[in-house]
Design brief:
The chain contains eleven helices and 22 strands. It is α/β, with parallel strands linked by helices. The structure holds flavin-adenine dinucleotide (FAD) and NADP nicotinamide-adenine-dinucleotide phosphate (NAP).
């Protein structure tokens, strides 16, 4: 009898997973809490349902040549980089072509996923779902969690003294859909990821002024590269990978930075990576021009808010701020698991190859799509789902749980001790001062 697999979520990762289950003759049933496929790529006018979705003007940041599922290329007439609507159409075409829709139960939220009492022998799960107020329970041989990285908005208000006094509008980018409502206003965007840059550029066309605050800076790359080819096509190449592996990291860094600064010098634009911070990269074709034309002003990190203004770390003050948009990213969680699985799955170190939780006696639970890639996530989720379904079927094996847990705990300890060392080093100037003060006191006492 074919194994029954519960797939949670019908976004990019969920669709890959359903297809891979079918390829391996497994029986998938996908539960999707919204009424459509595509996850965050399904645009809606409002965010009242609390789901993270694309804003209207979003354009993909990985070109179509590097973005498709392996057996379903984009149609010829699709542009290299496409807007959210076209990308969603592609997902719809994929789902229809492989007849995936009939396996999806829409408007069905997964409330709990628990091990069956005989889990250590069967590896089976009890899955409780809710559809329009009605609860159902079913037993599954395996589960693929495809609920995405962007479940909850990360809104770090406690890091911003005075924010509760601020009288203007405050929102997170999850609520942002279109630029209407910001015309003629002075808007402060906090956080420079892809979303922060996109929203700042879009608002700069109609707002009175856009201020964009960043703690870290970022490298900014264009969608088009040498000869007008999409940059991912030019950069994500085997020979580039090979060169990156053989060159010493300092030389590689020098070459990359030289190339990235060739288009515009990031220091002059206030976008250089803050010393000691991990470098990051965004894709944006217009941000440098907006900075050059003064429609977007780059600001340092924020020190505090007053009722109407923002005070920055460099001592500058911006008065009469009408709205603050936090583009500070997202967090994810697994509310349907019990402890310790719930916490363990949020620590990627405890996911074997970022897919299988290390603490389970049976390998019947796979986390799909919890990855950040340089390229498109479609290829990554497809590979994960192919592997996971083969593990469910017994065609691939993974090491036993005890071994995986021991390795994960060892890695965790190493990371902890590295963090402790870093804290020690960063606090050492004051520590050294204290020690030298103590030494001079001892010397003085000795001489007295
Ligand atoms: C604004 C934005 C732009 C992006 N642009 C790109 C890009 O250009 N290129 C790229 O490669 N990547 C991009 N990404 C990365 C993105 O992660 C992937 O493109 C992809 O959409 C992730 O798909 P997913 O299926 O893993 O998650 P999601 O698309 O978030 O889908 C998760 C699904 O699970 C459902 N769900 C959640 N909880 C439950 C539950 N309890 N029960 C039932 N259903 C549930 C949700 O309703 C949703 O449909 C972008 C991300 C964001 C936020
Ligand atoms: N297709 C596209 O073009 C497109 C568009 C949008 C998003 N995306 C994707 O969507 C995902 C989410 O992107 P995102 O930009 O929303 O989130 P993100 O990549 O997590 O970036 C959030 C940014 O917020 C800042 N931040 C976080 N916590 C902060 C704090 N406490 N105080 C101040 N600043 C803080 C950080 O930037 P600083 O430290 O520099 O301030 C961080 O880089 C990413 O995978 C991204 O690639 C793609």
């Amino acid at each position: 009898m074919a194994k029954r697999v519960a797939v949670i979520g019908a976004g990019v990762s969920g669709l890959s997973s359903i297809k891979c289950c079918l390829d391996e003759d497994l029986e998938p049933i996908c539960f999707e809490r919204s009424s459509d496929i595509g996850g965050l790529w399904k645009f809606t006018e409002t965010s009242k349902d609390g789901m993270t979705r694309v804003y209207k003007s979003l354009v993909t940041n990985v070109c179509k040549e590097m973005s498709c599922y392996s057996d379903f290329p984009f149609q010829e007439d699709y542009p290299n980089f496409m807007n959210q609507e076209k990308f969603w159409n592609y997902l719809q075409e994929f789902a229809e072509y492989f007849d995936l829709l009939k396996y999806i139960r829409f408007k069905t939220t997964v409330r709990s996923i628990t091990k069956r009492p005989d889990f250590s022998e069967t590896g089976q799960w009890d899955v409780v779902t809710e559809t329009e107020g009605r609860q159902d329970r079913a037993v599954f041989d395996a589960v693929m969690v495809c609920t995405g990285h962007f479940l909850n908005p990360h809104l770090p208000l406690e890091s911003f003294p005075g924010i509760h006094k601020f009288k203007g509008q405050i929102l997170h980018s999850q609520e942002y859909k279109i630029p209407a409502g910001f015309q003629g206003k002075r808007v402060l965007v906090i956080g420079l990821g892809n979303t922060g840059a996109d929203i700042a550029v879009e608002l700069s066309r109609t707002a009175a002024q856009v201020l964009l605050s960043t703690r870290t800076g970022t490298w900014v790359i264009n969608r088009s590269s040498d000869g007008g080819y999409p940059f991912n096509m030019m950069v994500l190449r085997r020979h580039h990978n090979f060169i990156a592996q053989v060159l010493p990291s300092c030389i590689l860094k020098w070459i990359q930075e030289r190339r990235l600064n060739k288009r515009f010098d990031h220091v002059n634009y206030g976008l250089n990576i803050t010393k000691g911070k991990k470098p990051k990269m965004i894709v944006n074709d217009e941000l440098p021009t907006c900075i050059l034309c003064g429609t977007v002003t780059i600001k340092t990190s924020l020190k505090e808010f007053t009722e109407t203004s923002a005070v920055f770390e460099d001592g500058t003050v911006e008065e009469n701020i009408d709205a603050v948009i936090f583009t500070t990213g997202y967090t994810y969680s697994f509310p349907f698991f019990e402890e310790p699985l719930k916490t363990l799955c949020t620590k990627k170190i405890f996911l074997y190859k970022l897919v299988f939780p290390s603490n389970l006696e049976k390998t019947t639970l796979a986390m799909i799509g919890f990855i950040h890639l340089t390229g498109s996530i479609l290829a990554g989720t497809e590979l994960q789902a192919r592997w996971a379904t083969r593990v469910f079927k017994g065609l691939c094996k993974i090491p036993p749980s005890q071994k995986l847990m021991a390795e994960a705990m060892k890695k965790e300890q190493l990371i902890e001790s590295k963090k402790r060392r870093e804290v020690f080093v960063s606090s050492s100037p004051s520590l050294l001062k204290y020690l030298s003060y103590r030494t001079s006191c001892v010397r003085l006492a000795g001489s007295g």
